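Work Package 3 (structural annotation) set out to generate three-dimensional models for the target panel prioritized at the project kickoff. During this period the team completed the workflow that converts sequence records into C-alpha cells, so that structures can be stored uniformly alongside our sequence database. As a representative example, we reproduce one entry of 368 residues exactly as it appears in the project archive.
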Amino acid sequence: MARDELAAWLRLTLTPGVGNEAARKLLAAFGLPGAVFGQSPSALRAVVGERLATALQITPDSLDAEVDKLGLWLAPPDHHLLTIGDAAFPPALLQMADPPLLLYVVGQLEALGRPNKIAIVGSRNPTPQGHINARQFAAALGESGLCIVSGLALGVDGAAHEGALDVDAPTIAVVGTGLDRVYPKRHHDLAHRITERGAIVSEYALGTPPLPAHFPQRNRIIAGLCQGTLVIEAAVASGSLITARLATEMGREVFAIPGSIHAPQARGCHALIRQGAKLVESAQDVLEDLQWDSGPVHRGHPAPGKDEQPAKESSLLTALGHDPVSLDALQARTGLPTPDLQAQLLELELNGQAARLPGSLFQRLNQG
C-alpha cells in the first residue's frame, strides 16, 4: 500500500468521533479514504453532519509519525494490514452489521481465508475440568479440519489455542489491543506459536492499550469469523455470553457444554442451553451439527456411556462423582479415615484424575 493511501486510511480511522458506521457512510458516498478527504465541507456535511465534517477537515498533528510507525511495523513479511475493500479481507466479516474497517494481522493470512472455523470461548477462571475440556475439544475439532478461533485471554481461550497447536491445527486469536503488544503478557510465547501456525488479528491501531471496552467489541469479530461458537464454562454475566449472543444475531450456531449445577462457571452455559443453544457432550456433536465430517475424530469429554469407560476405577473416584464435593462429604461417602482419604486424594491429584478447588472442594477430572 502506498504511503499516501496508508495515511488516508489511518486519518479516517483516527479522526475523533468517526466510528465504523460514519466511516462506512463516507466510503459508500465517496470511495476510498483519499477521495473522502478531497471533498468539500458541504459534501461531507451532507453525509455525516456538521460536527464530523469539521473534524474530517483537520489533519492530526501525529499523522506522519503514525504512518512512519505503521510502515516500520509492516516491514516483516508476516505483518499485514487489510482494509475492508481488500481481496484478502475475510468474507464472513462482510456479512456483519458492523464490520471492522481495518484488520491488523500477524501470522498466516491463509488461516483467515479458511472457510471452516469454530470459536471456542469461556471463563478466564475455569475449573480444572473446564481447562481440560477446552484443550481437548479444540484438539479434536482441529484434527477434523476446523480452524480454532478465540481471544488469547487467560483460561479457556488460552487452552483452546493450545489444543489446536497440540495437533498442529490452525488457530486465530482476535485481540483487543494493538498488535505491537501482547496481552496478557504471560501469553507472549503462546502468541508467537499462534503466528507460526495461524494468525493474531486486531482492528485496533498500534499502541492501543488493553482498555476494558475493547474486549466486548472484539467479540463480534470472533463470532463473525466463525460458523459456530462453543462456550465452555461461563458465568451468567460474562464476555463469552456476549460472543454467543452476537453469534446468534448473525445467524451462526451456538453450542454449550453443561456442567455442575454447583459451579458458578456452568451457569452461563445452562442459561444458553435454556435459550436454545445446542447442548454438547463431544466434539462429534459439533461436527455433526455443522455437517463437517472428515472421518473418525478424537472425542473430548464424552458423557458417561457415550464412549467406552475405563474398565476399572477406584472406589474414591466413584465417590467423587462429577460435581465438586467437600472433604467431609467424601468421608461420609467412603467411610475412610481422614489421613487415608487425604493420601488417596493426593494420589489422584498427582495422577491428574482429580483437582483441588477453592473452598476446600475436590472435583474428578475426565480426561477423555
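The radius of gyration is 24 Å.
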